[in-house]
Design brief:
The longest helix is centred in the last third of the chain and has 25 residues. 23% of the residues are buried. The N and C termini lie far apart (62 Å). By secondary structure, the protein is α+β, with helices and mostly antiparallel strands. It has a six-stranded mixed β-sheet. Strand 10 and strand 11 form a beta hairpin. The chain is built from seven helices and 13 strands. The radius of gyration is 23 Å and the shape is globular.
Length: 257
């Protein structure tokens, strides 16, 4: 007799439902409960991306919005112009507090869920999140130039898959249980991430809960990274010696061919 197969996504969903249904009555009375299928994503040399299931319960009808924000960094954007047939750097602009990754999931299109003008004090959309990004030496730039650099920042991040331009769907079961499958790209930066869930009713946020997600290196790549920071002079000397050895070996092989 052939046993039925269960996909990993189905198994995770069933576990999420069992956890929610088995929660104490006092916990279910809370307006919003959220958890992750895994609290950590480990990046190895064979890392090709990862899936994280976000699941939870709500206390009644409403829309759920989930945002995933990566660690903040400084990003520098270069602007190139064509001069006499050659592309040259015509300027650069640095931005502070840029999230290394930002993604959104929602039960419905955001324009139907969020209030007009956004949520005061709570950035949800990518544009709202980037409003908090500070341009270095902004007084030296015209507002139009800063807008161009910001658009360039978004375009560069989207090419790397770090600012997804689509909203992931959230599935709601029975009006109480919800789940969202989040796909993280292979170029995911390491650091501490925040997964934040909201309940919206009548275009107003009525509850919010956040959960941490740690992205770290593991295996050989983690040991190399630790060596680069802990014994930087030795690591640098070893890298230079290895490069010289490879160059010498390539020269020897080329002369014999």
């Amino acid at each position: 007799m052939t046993r039925p197969r269960h996909t990993p996504g189905l198994v995770r969903t069933l576990l999420a439902l069992l956890l929610a249904l088995g929660a104490p009555a006092a916990a279910l009375a809370q307006p919003l409960l959220v958890d992750l299928s895994r609290p950590r994503v480990s990046i190895t040399s064979a890392f090709r991306g990862a899936d994280v299931l976000v699941f939870g319960t709500i206390d009644g009808p409403g829309d759920v919005v989930i945002t995933v924000s990566g660690p903040v960094t400084r990003q520098t954007i270069l602007r190139k112009e064509r001069v006499f047939g050659l592309w040259v750097n015509a300027g650069r602009q640095a931005f502070d507090d840029v999230p290394a990754y930002y993604a959104i999931a929602a039960t419905r299109p955001l324009e139907e869920v969020l209030p007009t003008g956004g949520v005061p004090g709570t950035p949800v959309t990518l544009d709202e999140r980037l409003e908090a990004v500070r341009a270095v030496d902004a007084q030296r730039r015209r507002p139009l130039d800063l807008t161009d650099f910001r658009q360039g920042l978004i375009a560069a991040k989207r090419r790397e898959g770090l600012f997804p331009d689509t909203v992931n769907p959230i599935t709601v079961v029975g009006g109480r249980l919800f789940r969202a499958e989040l796909r993280f790209p292979s170029r995911l930066p390491v650091g501490d991430y925040e997964v934040r869930a909201y309940i919206f009713r009548d275009n107003q946020a009525v509850a919010a809960v956040s959960r941490p997600l740690v992205v770290s290196k593991a295996g050989f790549s983690a040991r190399v990274s630790e060596a680069a920071h802990e014994i930087a002079p030795v690591y640098g000397a070893g890298a230079i010696a290895l490069a010289l050895a490879i160059g010498w070996l390539a020269g020897v092989v080329a002369r014999r061919i």
